[in-house]
Backbone:
């Protein structure tokens, strides 16, 4: 029992150190930044790097849980010399906790997230009412939430959650903000997109 408790304590200490480092990095990188485009689950950073390059006036942030993906994203950023782009290895809750409270989301992007197709795993899907609450809280009226998936059930799930949410309204006329084929998108025969605006 003592071994388990000590291992758990070590893991908590590692998490605390990671959160503290992320907090310090975000404060340094985002000093003076008021508004961002945020991509949750940025993968290799293809889409966000392309977007940041053609939109130099937009400050872009991407997060992912996998270290080598973040490394690849940072390599792309460095190769193109982009100053308006940062990638962070972080869980969503960790990032939102480290992000300065005053920063607003102009647009949130979610591209091809893991659909967790089995019903018993649906609680692991990124699109949940709590997630939409938090993004809405950080988004001004007219800001966008953009979702794309090749998994039709997950797309339908997202549309249902957006329709149920009091702060979001699906905009059928909205155009996808920027087209740049990602690695995952290149593997797919079809996909579905939805854009919602903050009420």
Residues:
């Amino acid at each position: 029992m003592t071994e388990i408790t000590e291992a758990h304590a070590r893991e908590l200490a590692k998490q605390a150190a990671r959160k503290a480092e992320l907090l310090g990095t975000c404060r340094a990188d985002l000093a003076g930044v008021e508004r961002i485009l945020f991509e949750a689950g940025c993968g290799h950073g293809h889409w966000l790097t392309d977007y940041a390059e053609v939109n130099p006036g937009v400050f872009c942030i991407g997060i992912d849980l996998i270290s080598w993906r973040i490394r690849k994203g940072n390599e792309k950023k460095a190769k193109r010399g982009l100053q308006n782009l940062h990638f962070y290895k972080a869980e969503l809750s960790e990032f939102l906790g480290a992000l300065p409270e005053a920063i607003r989301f102009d647009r949130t992007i979610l591209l091809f997230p893991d659909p967790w197709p089995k019903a018993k795993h649906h609680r692991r899907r990124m699109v949940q009412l709590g997630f939409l609450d938090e993004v809405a809280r950080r988004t001004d009226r007219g800001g966008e939430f953009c979702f794309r998936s090749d998994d039709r059930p997950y797309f339908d799930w997202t549309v249902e959650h957006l329709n149920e949410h009091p702060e979001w309204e699906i905009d059928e006329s909205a155009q996808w903000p920027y087209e740049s084929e990602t690695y995952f998108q290149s593997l797919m025969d079809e996909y579905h997109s939805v854009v919602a605006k903050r009420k």
Q: What stands out?
A: The two ends are 51 Å apart (CA to CA).
